[in-house]
Amino acid sequence: MVLNQLEELTSRAFDELGKVTNLEELEAWRIRYLGRKSSLIQILRLLATLPLEDRRVAGARANEVKKTFEARLAEKKTSLELAATLSLQRESLDVTLPGERVLLGRLHPTTQILDEICHIFQDMGFQVVEGPEVEWEYYNFEALNMPADHPARDMFATLWIDFETEAGDRPMLLRTHTSPVQIRVMEKSPPPIRIIAPGRVYRYEATDATHEWMFYQVEGLAVDRNITLADLKGTLFEFARRLFGKERKCRFRCDYFPFVEPGVEVAIDCFVCGGAGCRLCGNSGWIEIIGAGMVHPEVLRRVDIDPEVYSGFAFGMGVERIPILRYGIDDIRLFYSNDVRFLRQF
Amino acid sequence: MKVSFRWLSDYVDISAPLEEVTERLTMAGLEVGGMQVIGAGWNNIVVGKIVGVDAHPNADRLRLVTVELGKQQSTVVCGAPNLTIGDNVAFAHVGAQLIEGDSGEVIQLTSARIRGVVSEGMVCSEKELGISDRHEGIMILPPEAPVGTPLSEYLGDTILDLDITPNRPDCLSVIGVAREIVAVLGGRLSIPEIHCEELESAIDSFVSVEIADPDLCPRYCASLLTEVKVGSSPQWLQQRLLACGMRPISNIVDITNYVMLEYGQPLHAFDYDRIHGKQIIVRRAEKGETMTALDGVERTLGQDMLVIADKERVIAIAGIMGGLDTEVTANTTSVLIESANFNQAAIHRGSVNLRLSSEASLRFEKGLSRDLPVVALKRATELMLELTGGKVAKGVIDVYPGKRQVEPILLSAAEVKRLLGMEVGVSEIVRTLELLGFGCEQTELPSSVRVNVPWWRTDISCTADLVEEVARIIGYDNIPTTMLGAPLPEHESVPMLALRRKLRSILVSCGFQEVLTYSLTSLEVMSRISPELQLTGAVPVKVANPMSRDHEYLRTSLRTGLLSVLARNQKYEENGIRLFEIGKVFLPQEKDLPQEKEMLCAVLSSSQGGLSWRGEAEPVDFFSAKGVVETLLSRLELAASFETGGDESLCPGRGADITVGNDKVGVIGELHPKVSEAFELSGTAYLIEIDLDKLESSAGGPKKYEPISRYPSTTRDIALLVDEPITHEQVYDIVKGFSLVDQVALFDLYSGEQVSVGKKSFAFRIVYQSPTHTLTDEEVDKVQQQILDKLARELGASLRA
């Protein structure tokens, strides 16, 4: 009787298991045939009421059936899971399809490098200030120790503004360097001073791959008691180290600018040839990056800072030169012709 | 300045290797910008002596030259006209590298049979040796040239190309550079003494000199030579001129140039017999006065220019160029040599105004020593005596109204330390300065010296100058590196910097590419931003000497640059382009520097069919641009409102004023089609322009935190029917005005068949929330009804069925 029931149950269960197609159905099958309320469990419970002989035979059979069910369940589960995996694989993504374009612009390479330069100096306690791009001749030249007809003025081919005073002078110009900001700052604030001044400058210059009539400079100025050439050297070497990396060598040599004394030129060893001499560095092995020096006593005197009490250093650098060197850009005119195909590379 | 190493060796014994010399000079301020080796390829070329010249058996124009080469002789075929027995020449053996006379190509000399005669070598011209372009005849070497010696040993040289800074005109001379070499490398400077045998008759009896304008001519010296024979100068002198990049002309002129290169003092030789009245007057030019200079060009002189005149006319533009009339020619027999000092500013100005510069003016304008003219004059006179066969009048003219006493400078070790940041002892200071020719005297103070500046150094006037001298001789590379110490100056914030940085970063994240455009443009381009193509407003600031008409006026708006850049980029960019610039515009002001106003300008142009596999991109329109402005301003904590308006560059009815508080801070809108056309733009473009100065002044106060409600919110959607002219803002403001309304968002706008004519429908999603409790449905219903009542009352709005 019980054995018949078990046979029937087994046949039905296998029949249904064959129709199971997914894990949810399998779970329902498990509850139906192996769950607490299933016929099999009920049969097992009934066994206790059977005569001993019957109980032994039926019990053995019932347990056998249970084991078979469990085995078939596990088997089916494995096969269903495998099928599911295979089916997922069949529907897998082409991960090489392009991602959705995120609309992001970029900063102009000049802005990026200016930010970088300003950051380095801000870390060293310099504050950023700015000055006008249209300047008086006084600030651009005279106050910087370059009176009219000074030979050093020839280093600064000037774009003059069409503006005449009643006396017939033409004292307005497009600043040729950022140095006039030094004068404006010193006129306004007493020492200690520690500033940098980024901005546009202009030259009367025919353009070619290495010359542009408008470009950017960053000026620096520190004035206080006991500021020395050694401080200037330390400051600029540290700057060069941070901007160009510590593997670059730095050279500090004597040079001349009318508004500093002693005057300095800072160069780094050539990126391309490492100092051996190549086209980029004009075979010298060195690339000039900064003009600098101790603020000339005449310049201090003019802004009523006593050069016997205070001293200071000043420096100035061209900005585009840095990305030009760093990225190997071969034409400075690319910067302000603003071809997006160029700008997007930075 | 090109300097011959061989010439330098006349004054200083250089034992250091060439690399060290160039390195030390460069570090000390005389940058060696280049180097050229003469005779680098002169292998197999030796000094020879012509011992025989015979006719060629088969050619009239060719001859057979026999050259003595020390241990051997060689006979070669030669076509040169100047073959003289006894002359020393450069002889190239087979295998030598030479420059082919006609083609200029480098060739290797091979054995050749010329008209039947075998020629195993060649007698060379200067061009073939690469010394100059001369190829009319062979080069004749001086009689003392050692026969048999390799030519490179005898004539080879290294030419240093030095970049002399404008403060060091003394180094525009071989002796000046030799002094520097002694200072940086040690050694002894030996300048030969000058000897002149003078005539009995004094120079005063030949000529008189008057300086009428002593402010422009502090000193004028002259000497006079008679019975000179003008001809070419000797080979060695020509060689040196060529090495330094000057062309030999005649012995007289060459000597003046030679001494200029040697001492740095420009000299001029006049044909004495052509000086009218035997009188030299140094004066300012008179109005309208003209002179034809040595270059053959007649120039009208300005009244501020200094000239050398005789009794009747101008015979030289002082310090710049001599006159053609008094030029030394082949017929000249007496010369007056001028050696003067002129005011540097006057020479500079004159040279700029005349657009005429010369080796002389380039030196004078840098300020030469007033002690130099006499020294150089004596040297030139000596050479003229030696090389032209002339006789010299007794004495020299020396008119010296500008004589001045040069004061010594007091320098202390403390001052050196204060500026350099390194301890330099007095004895070291004295040592370095003396190497440079400074005289140092002890003072009553223990650690100070009184320094006398050598006469040739016109650039030294204060202690800082001396400190630089000390530093550059010690070597800048030996200066320590230290970092700046405290105190730091008080920080003054510049709000514009922060504002700019913030705007840039927001715009970049909104997909805008930053551009930086030129500050100068043209009136034509400026006029394109108005549909009538007419400039409005004040005349922009103009450059007096523009490089081109395209860059003549300072921009008054960023639009011109940005729209031009947009047009250029549209040619090769398919996707929509978004560009911005933050920069200055320049507004003219009466009698003052222009106002420099900080502006932001951005443009968006629609896509021209940039495709994506994900479907079409959102279209670009007014609201794309507006979203950007809203993002910008909300990030700056500013509430903006938009009112129909805009300006001339924008399409009427499709532009708006951007207002913050009561201030119009900018405009936004669709570009006027006429403007688009003027800039040759394709498609529609949208423009945003904001005045950053105004934005900065309206920037909000400090931010305050708002608590987040802990109670759930309730969302309701409503569709409202309103008359067409009612704006979104009118509805929005009313709804948002209710205190329980947390958020209001428009999610649909409709007008058309489903609503009656003259009406439109707004669909809003309203989120209700209270900070104090959970809202009940009844509460929300009540507020919503109040909202609808108010909208009906004030705007005639009704719920859409």
> What class would the helix/strand composition of chain A place it in?
alpha+beta
**Strand numbers in spatial order across the main sheet of chain A:** 1-4-5-9-8-7-6
Q: Structural class, from helix and strand content of chain B?
A: alpha+beta
**CATH T-level topology of the largest domain in chain B:** BirA Bifunctional Protein, domain 2
Descriptive report:
- The complex is a heterodimer of chains A (346) and B (801).
- Chain A is of the alpha+beta class and 346 residues long.
- In chain A, the strands form two sheets. In chain A, strands 1-4-5-9-8-7-6 form a seven-stranded mixed sheet, with helices on both faces.
- In chain A, 39% of the residues are buried.
- Chain A folds into two domains: 2-88; 109-132 and 176-343, BirA Bifunctional Protein, domain 2 (2-Layer Sandwich), CATH 3.30.930.
- Helix content of chain A is 41%, strand content 18%.
- Chain B is α+β, with helices and mostly antiparallel strands and 801 residues long.
- Chain B folds into six domains: 2-39 and 158-185, Phenylalanyl-tRNA Synthetase, Chain B, domain 1, CATH 3.30.56; 45-155, OB fold (Dihydrolipoamide Acetyltransferase, E2P); 198-399, Phenylalanyl-tRNA Synthetase, Chain B, domain 3; 409-477, Phenylalanyl-tRNA Synthetase, Chain B, domain 1; 495-698, BirA Bifunctional Protein, domain 2 (2-Layer Sandwich), CATH 3.30.930.10; 714-799, Alpha-Beta Plaits.
- Chain B contains 21 helices and 42 strands.
- In chain B, the strands form eleven sheets. In chain B, strands 30-33-34-38-37-36-35 form a seven-stranded mixed sheet.
- In chain B, strand 3 (45-56) and strand 4 (59-68) form a beta hairpin.
- Chain B is elongated.
- The model of chain B has no long low-confidence stretch (mean pLDDT 92).
- The interface between A and B is large, with 94 and 91 residues.
